[in-house]
Prior knowledge:
The chain is an all-alpha fold. The chain folds into two domains: 2-161, Ferritin (Up-down Bundle); 172-326, no CATH class. It is 77% helix and 0% strand. The protein is built from eleven helices and no strands.
Amino acid sequence: MLARLFSSPKRSFESLSEQEILALAIASEEEDSRIYLAYADSLREQYPASAKVFEDMAEVEQTHKNVLIEMFRSRFGERIPLIRREHVRGFYERKPDWLRKNLALDTVRQQAEAMERQAVRFYEEATKRVSDASTRKLLGDLALAEQGHEDIAHMLTDKHLPEDVKSEEDADARRQFILTYVQPGLAGLMDGSVSTLAPIFAAAFATGDTWSTFLIGLSASVGAGISMGFTEAAHDDGKISGRGSPLKRGLASGIMTALGGLGHALPYLIPHFWTATIVAAIVVFFELWAIAFIQNRYMETPFLRAVFQVVFGGSLVLAAGILIGNG
Length: 327
């Protein structure tokens, strides 16, 4: 019973025979080729030059797989054992295609580079564990082949992605990130931060009760977040505007709206009124300056204009709430 509980469904690399190691290398090369083709398919419409890079890298992996199959056939015959990465402890694993959809361009490039580095490290470590001369030579050749993959990747990038094309694709990726996440998130943060200032501070000064003020701020923030999220998701499906997934935009807008209001509602969990109000005012100050920074950083709004629009406007709303609460 205990042996069954503590036994692993995976084998250790040390338990593999030379035949199994070679079969594992064949399966790995084939899987990497499919991954590169999946990357190419996901990038082809928006980044055709990068898609071509991954198509050529997939072709290189297929070439190495065919060489390994010929080597296996000459040494062990036609029947290749079924052994894959998930069958071996400590072997690097790859995510399935359905977990790699809709990845950002930089993320795809980074994952491809990581794939090649992991393969090199695996074969190098495998070579150290083997004492048989022929097996060591085999694994050493595989390590050199994977190092060659890295060189080929760089050459293919230079071939298909000259600096101007790469810069254009990077700019497209950044623009898509801004349209899908930053723009709706910023709109939500501004709405949540500024629109809840008046009701929260009016309630605070009208009642002098921190718990009631917190409940009003919580309801206003959550309600505004739900409203903004559904509005953003429903008014544009992203197909014509190119603003991306409505679900992602709705989540970005809704979450940031709620956070914007909660920032200055949470201090009213402090039972002492003036302590809570001072902390809330400090939070508001940082919220407004953060919004101005994001506008300048991502939306290219001149900093002084962003400060005037957000900080000055937010201060007026804050003052209105205090005046109404004291009225």
